Amino acid sequence: MRPITSELGGPARYPFSMRAFHWLRALLLLGLIALGWYMTALPEAAPIKFALYPIHKQLGVTVLLVAIAALFVRGRSVHPAEPRGLSRLEAILSRFTHRALLVLAIVVPLMGYAMSSSYVDSDGVPFLFMMLPELLPKSDLGFAVFQWLHRILAYTLLALALLHVIGALKHRLVDRGGESDVLGRML
Asked: With helix as H, strand as E and coil as C, how does 3-48 read?
């Protein structure tokens, strides 16, 4: 069975592997952000609060691994050309947003890992049936810096994800599925 091609000669949709990684990353990241908000909003005395941190850490490591795998698959895949219907500003925003989302899906978990590694009272970073090595020295200052970076970059990631969704919906609903409608490529 031949792949459906676009008017520009390339494939009309992203390969299944890229689409699967896209939606898996989106679900994991949104879940992590929601879990992060929930657990940090809990009072310090809430017993469940500290039970949620290892889950958050494991999901963060999972996002890191999925993002790295997605980059590898992306580099080895043929994907659709940029749509012709985008304005110059939309094309620049699209390229920047996509690249920043991929980079932040790696950097935010790394900042969380660094934060956990530098935390003086850390229990470590669990993943599957093992504890990952803590690579940084324990330091209150290091922890504070990595905590700030983790938080700011997570909010940046969320803002870019919202921009990404708004852009896709704008092209689908406002442009009425014209040449700039890219949502079908990822479904």
From this structure: CCECCCCCECCCCHHHHHHHHHHHHHHHHHHHHHHHHHHCCCCCHH
Helix axis angle for 140-169 and 16-41, nearest 10°, is: 130
**pTM of the complete model:** 0.87
Structure tokens at 166: 């708004």
Strand partners, 132: 125
Q: By the 8 A CB rule, do 94 and 184 touch?
A: no
CA–CA separation, 100 vs 91, rounded Å?
Answer: 14
> What is the pLDDT, as a whole number, of residue 36?
92
Rounded distance between C-alpha atoms, residue 83 and residue 99, angstroms: 17
- Kindly state the DSSP code that residue 136 receives in the 8-state scheme: S
Specify whether the CB–CB gap between 139 and 118 falls below 8 A: yes
Mean pLDDT, 10 residues at a time, over the chain (187 residues)?
48 87 94 93 91 93 96 88 82 92 96 95 88 92 97 96 90 75 78
d(C-alpha 177, C-alpha 187), whole Å: 14
Cβ–Cβ under 8 Å, residues 63 and 29: yes
Task: Determine contact, residues 84/8, Cβ cutoff 8 Å.
Answer: yes
